[in-house]
Amino acid sequence: MKGYAMLGIGKSGWIEKERPSCGPLDAICRPLAVAICTSDVHTVWEGAMGDRHDLILGHECCAEVVEVGSLVKDFKPGDKVIVPAITPDWNSLEAQGGYAMHSGGMLAGWKFSNFKDGVFAEYFHVNDADGNLAHLPENISVSNACMLSDMVPTGFHAVELADIQFGDTVLVIGIGPVGLMSVAGAALRGASRIIAVGTRKVCREAAKRYGASDFISYKDGPISDQVLKITDGKGVDRVCIAGGNCDTFAEAVKSVKPGGKIGNVNYLGSGDYIKIPRAEWGFGMGHKEIIGGLMPGGRLRMEKLGSLISAGRLDVSPLVTHVFHGWDNLEKALFLMKDKPADLIKPVVIID
Q1: Burial, 93: exposed, middle or buried (Cβ in 10 Å; 0-12, 13-18, 19+)?
Q2: What is the pLDDT of residues 296-330, one digit of tens each?
Q3: HSE (side-chain half, CA atoms, 13 Å) at 325
Q4: d(Cα 299, Cα 224) in Å, to the nearest integer?
Q5: What's domain 2-150+295-350's architecture?
Q6: In contact, 157 and 265? CB cutoff 8 Å
Q7: Helices H, strands E: what count in the chain?
Q8: Other CB atoms closer than 10 Å to residue 231's CB: what's the count?
Q9: Which helix (H) or strand (E) covers residue 75, if one does?
Q10: Residue 194 CB neighbours (<10 A)
Q11: Is the whole-model pTM more than 0.85?
Q12: Is 98 left (phi over 0), alpha (psi -120 to 50) or beta?
């Protein structure tokens, strides 16, 4: 089979590989549509996860099952499925402890394009099929279904980590596709005011549609100064970090009230240390909580999030700004995500 792979840091291209084999609990799938993620850019051009050679990229797709193992109960060839970016080993101790995304080690639930071939291939392997795949509702398009792989669950996880409550004032840093889903999740959770940090017009328009009430730009000065100004010096109750870099945490700490929580889902592709301002963190005693987490995977989560879309409670179509057809356009879509033109939120490639 052919697959689009990371050949080394800064290099990518098509390669030939053997079609993966199917274990008794597993499934082999073929993509119906795939989406490009900023994480793919971090992985290839920044070497954020380390050097990789001939590793097939991609972790966002919806697919058709072509083969299942002898012990798979709930899926069969021909089923259309949502494939989460995170595919834990559900019999692991970490999963039993409530952190399935770290099954086998920190971040090891993230298999695709990390240490296992990803979904940018004619066929790909899914471990623990009954636990990791989810049936695709008929009223969700294949392009929208790709948003359920990563963007929706990751953006919503920032909301969960920040523990947003009814009436909270929330700051969302970064309103790319993940941050937009944090805005949407904060609104669904009952936030009264959502301050969004971002500059691109297409993202601001989408954020307003999802419930953002105020906008600021990092280009206009420190984020925290702007937040404190528009909140009359009070700051915010919760912060969702979905963009930025290692220095962004300092702005989040300065922006949040004592007793507030910061939920980070941003993939930090470079830098060695996170900077926490001592005084604004209450000299270590400010009850300002910082939690960073990899999105949970699993069938139950995918089905619940899918039901929000199929029931009309969540519209992810504004995320999909560029649609391509056929494997021949995959590289074009990948480089589009790398360059991030002003009108881009998310590119999807439909495999005709």
Answers
A1: exposed
A2: 999 999 999 999 999 999 999 999 999 999 999 99
A3: 1
A4: 38
A5: Alpha-Beta Complex (3.90)
A6: yes
A7: 11, 16
A8: 18
A9: none
A10: 27
A11: yes
A12: left
Q: Model confidence over 290-304: pLDDT tens digits?
A: 999 999 999 999 999
- Give the position of tokens 């993620």: 37
Q: Could you name the CATH architecture of 153-292?
A: 3-Layer(aba) Sandwich (3.40)
Per-residue pLDDT at 48 exceeds 80: no
Report residue 17 as tokens. 């590989």
How distant, in Å, are the alpha carbons of 32, 150, 203, 252 from that of 39?
A: 21, 10, 18, 22
Distance CA 33, CA 61 (A): 6
Give the chain's radius of gyration (CA, Å). Answer: 20
Tokens of 305: 């999030």
To which H or E segment does residue 134 belong? strand 134-135
* Closest of 352, 303, 283 to residue 323, by C-alpha: 352
Helix (H, G, I), strand (E, B) or coil at 215: strand
Q: Domain limits of the chain?
A: 2-150+295-350, 153-292
Helix axes 151-162, 177-188, angle to 10 degrees: 50
Tokens 């840091």 correspond to what residue? 9
Q: Which residues pair with 55 in a beta bridge?
A: 6
Using CA atoms, how far residue 315 sits from 45, 127, 309, in Å, is 31, 29, 6
What whole-number distance in Å separates Cα of residue 39 and Cα of residue 57? 10
Helices (H), the chain: 38-41, 93-96, 129-132, 142-147, 151-162, 177-188, 201-210, 223-230, 248-255, 299-310, 330-339
